């Protein structure tokens, strides 16, 4: 019985500078924006411990009607302002409750060299199943919540930053 590892990635273009978009993703700012702009789509975020730097633990409570256990707790493993990378590992709930052995979310805000003052939000899910008998769980993976977040936050930034 083998281990299954993989990743799913999505890139969302944003018509705003990477530095501005990163300010909305870094630390706890993304949690605030999720709570303000999309609690009905993604859920609500509570800070369990920390200030938004690496080691911070947050709990995401999914909206009513979401299949599964209804929440996940994750820890920020990487918060790199220079590279504009944020990475978190699920500690409990979410896809771990469904049977995944490891579940990581990585977000990178990348300059778009082809279009100055534009950037790309690259969202990646990395997962692991310790046993290939769990392969049926792969059909439950979805990057859609991260796509929704990228588009809603991107639109929010464009509508608020570009009008200043």
UniProtKB/TrEMBL annotation:
<dbReference type="GO" id="GO:0006952">
    <property type="term" value="P:defense response"/>
</dbReference>
<keyword id="KW-0017">Alkaloid metabolism</keyword>
<dbReference type="GO" id="GO:0038023">
    <property type="term" value="F:signaling receptor activity"/>
</dbReference>
<protein>
    <recommendedName>
        <fullName>Bet v I/Major latex protein domain-containing protein</fullName>
    </recommendedName>
</protein>
<dbReference type="GO" id="GO:0004864">
    <property type="term" value="F:protein phosphatase inhibitor activity"/>
</dbReference>
<dbReference type="GO" id="GO:0005634">
    <property type="term" value="C:nucleus"/>
</dbReference>
<dbReference type="GO" id="GO:0010427">
    <property type="term" value="F:abscisic acid binding"/>
</dbReference>
<dbReference type="InterPro" id="IPR023393">
    <property type="entry name" value="START-like_dom_sf"/>
</dbReference>
<dbReference type="InterPro" id="IPR000916">
    <property type="entry name" value="Bet_v_I/MLP"/>
</dbReference>
<comment type="similarity">
    <text>Belongs to the BetVI family.</text>
</comment>
<dbReference type="GO" id="GO:0005737">
    <property type="term" value="C:cytoplasm"/>
</dbReference>
<dbReference type="GO" id="GO:0009738">
    <property type="term" value="P:abscisic acid-activated signaling pathway"/>
</dbReference>
<feature type="domain" description="Bet v I/Major latex protein">
    <location>
        <begin position="6"/>
        <end position="141"/>
    </location>
</feature>
<dbReference type="Pfam" id="PF00407">
    <property type="entry name" value="Bet_v_1"/>
</dbReference>
<dbReference type="GO" id="GO:0009820">
    <property type="term" value="P:alkaloid metabolic process"/>
</dbReference>
<dbReference type="InterPro" id="IPR050279">
    <property type="entry name" value="Plant_def-hormone_signal"/>
</dbReference>
